[in-house]
## 1
Amino acid sequence: MRLSLARKTTLALIGLVFIAISSVVSAETPKPVVPKGKGEQCVEPTEDMRKNHMKYLKHQRDLTVHEGIRTKKFSLVECIECHVVPNEKGEYPKFGSDDHFCSSCHNYASVDIDCFQCHATKPDTSQGYRHNLDAKAAHHFTTTSEEQVLNQSDIELVTAEKEQQ
Amino acid sequence: MTTENKIDLYRRNFVGGAATLAAGITIAPGVLLTGVAQAKPADQPVSSSVRWGMLVNANKCDDCGACVTACNETHGLVGHGRPETDAQWIRTVKLRDKTTGHVETLPVMCQHCETPPCADVCPTGASFRRADGIVLVDKHICIGCRYCMMACPYKARSFIHETLTDQKPHAPRGKGTVESCTMCVDRVDNGEQPACVVACAGEHGEDKAITFGDMKDPNSEISQLMMKFGGKQIRADLGLNTGVRYQGL
């Protein structure tokens, strides 16, 4: 069977495109983009944390709830404190989005976790949690507006510093 | 009391007294640490050598609500406009004597029983009593059956019906689990006092209605007050040996 020149060219082109696409796919397997935390190094080597973080967290949770052991090393609150950082606008990523440290990888691996049905997904920005329990604060229920302005400016200060670096 | 126990008590008194004296000297002349919770090292488990408790003076409580507000704020308890099911860890109760018309208000929360009925009925072991006397729900293993809510004689527990967001880092809580007063367990573990106690003292100063401390330490403020004025239990007939006691009921 003889093929016309035009037909040959078309087939060759299709073949080329196909080869090009498959080579791209094999070279770059999509990987999760995990947001960088505040610190330089996690509490254990990264490889270890990737593999075993769930074991550490579960062990720590039982010790904390039942025995009141509150070491910071494997505390979920401390994980969030370091790994969940605000963007340039000072907004914290929501759990479930690819910008949140935990869900960035769990979305990729399709692992459904229920930690955040109860636990806070971002650090506590109202520093008053432990200290504003005076009568005034107790009666007005929320922190005063001055404090909120201060917090906002603090956030801007921090993000500005980061941009400079 | 056996002789051995007596000796132990003497020793404890002596050691406690010496510690108080040392603290007084260290901080400032004439200033004594009274009723301050002792912070345990973070890596040590809680032990039964302390029993945390509260003493409420009903005569001094004027229903200002500072304790309730402080609790709600500290733990992020937000109402949904449904008082029947909204979470309530502490509430003020009004008692009216029909004969005299005398009205008394007092805060009621989880009474942190020594033999808690909630823990007895819990099918999963989620309701438990910590070694230092604080009764808690391990929400990791709570299945939300609410047996404990029925068993509690003080109606102290709440069930979370709604999906929650923006919880406080130190007060994790979520839909489908039961919760109640934790005596601000994370604060206590850090050597601080519960939020309601701090708020009450902030509102009333020296005339505060709630005192927190170690009921096993004879020199603590709470033990001294209870020795002097007694500490009644609500429904003492149940023999639960509650950790929250009342004065002036």
## 2
Amino acid sequence: MSRLIANAASALAPTCDYTTGCITCGDVAVPMSVTRLDDERGLALCSDDEGNSETVEIDLVAPVAPGDTLLVHAGTAIARLTEEASA
Amino acid sequence: MKYVDEFRDPALGEVLAGEILGLVEPGRHYKFMEVCGGHTHSIYKYGIDDLLPANVELVHGPGCPVCVIPMGRVDDGISLAHQPDVIFTCFGDMLRVPGSDGTLLDAKAEGADIRMVYSPLDALRIAKANPDRPVIFFAIGFETTAPSTALTLKRAKAEGVKNFFCMCNHVTIVPPLRALLDSPDLRLDGFIGPGHVSTVVGVRPFEFIPREYKKPISVAGFEPLDVLHAIHMILTQIKEGRCEVENQYARVVPYDGNPRALEVMSEVFELRPHFEWRGMGFISQSGLKLSEAYADMDAEIQYSVPGIRVADPKACQCGEVLKGVIKPWECKVFGSGCTPERPIGTCMVSSEGACAAYYNYGRFAREREVV
């Protein structure tokens, strides 16, 4: 019975969608733009082009400023993207 | 989207594909491994393999951290999740990975408090909101994800959070690559190197591949033009008789990586003497554990875990798939006993797994016809 419930839970659970990729488990990172800084805690509120926002660790790319584009993986900015670099 | 659209231009893709056609020698077979699960996903999502000449074969490497987790570690995680009062947190893909007696989702259905998080920071947030309960984060991933875990553990320590623990399953990319290159049953002509791992570790750690094994490698981004460009670069090296590390993803990857990330990792983690990889056995110095300074946050020290090695299911050939020895559709249970809805092996569970990529993008039917 418990296995039956588990299977039902499995069908309904909010797991990653394997058709679009899993940002946390794969070597995947998304460009996000800094919208607000929390200097005291070393965090930044960032948003992507689709309007999703996320609190991001910025320790690895500090200092950053609002408007900067960061490459974010699992809630942590791992690189900063620049216009020259993207050219 | 900025930094994305310009790398998805179909016209440029066709130009690159045409040039690739001109670089290959007819009658010679080229076998390249994309190390990273993210590349596997891009290749099938964008149909990159359809743009390649028939004699250029792409094989999939061990670059999906979920796919390489052995069953015994899943059992250990489930055992921690069943400890009294524990809130167990992990990334979404891990929930569906089968242990020897069910998945973390099964354990959740049986009453364990297991929550999916998108980042270690989310797990810390849960710990701060539940100060009376221990919160364990199941950390998994290569060097791309390890700094994120390290920073969160540092933050927890600095903020005096006493109820946050970590079961560390982080792995490193170089030891399994060396194990693959030492494997006699795998013959490769080059590597598409992992882009975001390299953002952290840099390009330098891959220098041993051309130096010691005489294989070219191009560290690549994840957009379709990135992957095509990397293949173009490797073929050009072969044609010109060169063999070196090249950085296709230079817009993001510095040659020496991110020194701050490496510094944080070395403070929080230390290498395990050996770590078990699914289908590949134990590989020396390929896994990370928490350093002594963080032992009080190490769930494996603070709680007892069974730590029993569990053999992979007999029908499952994830090991051969992970080493690129067989294609996913050549596995006995692919698409029949093992599907994304009911996976037997980890390669079918994870979104980045080679089997899931083949299954979801219709490679099952097409490859069968070719055979």
